[in-house]
Fold this sequence. Notes:
By secondary structure, this protein is α+β, with helices and mostly antiparallel strands.
Amino acid sequence: KILLTTVFDHLRNQLQGIAITVQDVTREMELNEAKSHFISNVSHELRTPLFNIKSFIETLYEYGHSLSEEQKRDFLETANKETDRLTRLVNDVLDISRLESGKPYPLTPTALSAVVEQTLRAHRLTAKDKEIYLSAVMEPDLPDVIGHYDLLLQVLANLVGNALKFTPAGGHVILWAYPWAGRVRVEVSDTGIGIPSEHQDAIFGRFFRVENRVHTLEGTGLGLSIVQNILQKHHTDIQLLSEVGIGSSFWFDLDQA
Length: 257
Ligand code: ADP
């Protein structure tokens, strides 16, 4: 961007010269582009469930009298699921905008074991319903870490949520926490369907979901990008090892308190 500014001498009432400022706005333009891309993706993602819900309501309203009880229940059930999907999307988008708002997230000494235990408690029922063995393996004297309790809880919730979603009945999901190379390593491993190697980078992008999977519609495709964003605030990054049909393992290292 080139800015031209005239320098005017008001006392003598005459033009003294022209100042030229050259500003590199490439980064600004890239950010704007990413933002509008995100907004158009969000709008598209919101429109689909909204359209479905509206169609179901209209059908029930206009043709309800000629539908069987079972058909009506099916319609309502699907509309209810679509409403849940909308709620998840709105929550994820709100999380992202909060994370990117510049609001400070102070990092303080945090009891990682408490974060792990709370994550376990929150997912115990889902694991039981899906007949998946969910457990944690932690060192008895695990050091505290430098982090943000609620954000770390969200990271583990997203990782364990995914692990449970993509692991069939009878499988295992394990949360590990142990000292590693002067830091503390946190790992979520599962014996699920795995991620094809060609998608292993893309899954961290926004709205990316591996197609043709049973649970494609359950997700928003935003979970892992939220995880990555939170971990950046913790000066660390997420790592992944996964093999189709064997399982996946996601891990990251945190500074000790
Ligand atoms: P969501 O789970 O909401 O779709 P994510 O960003 O959390 O979005 O994940 C993106 C995609 O990565 C998922 O749709 C899924 O295809 C794949 N994925 C994530 N975690 C796992 C896992 N533990 N096992 C298999 N696939 C996974």
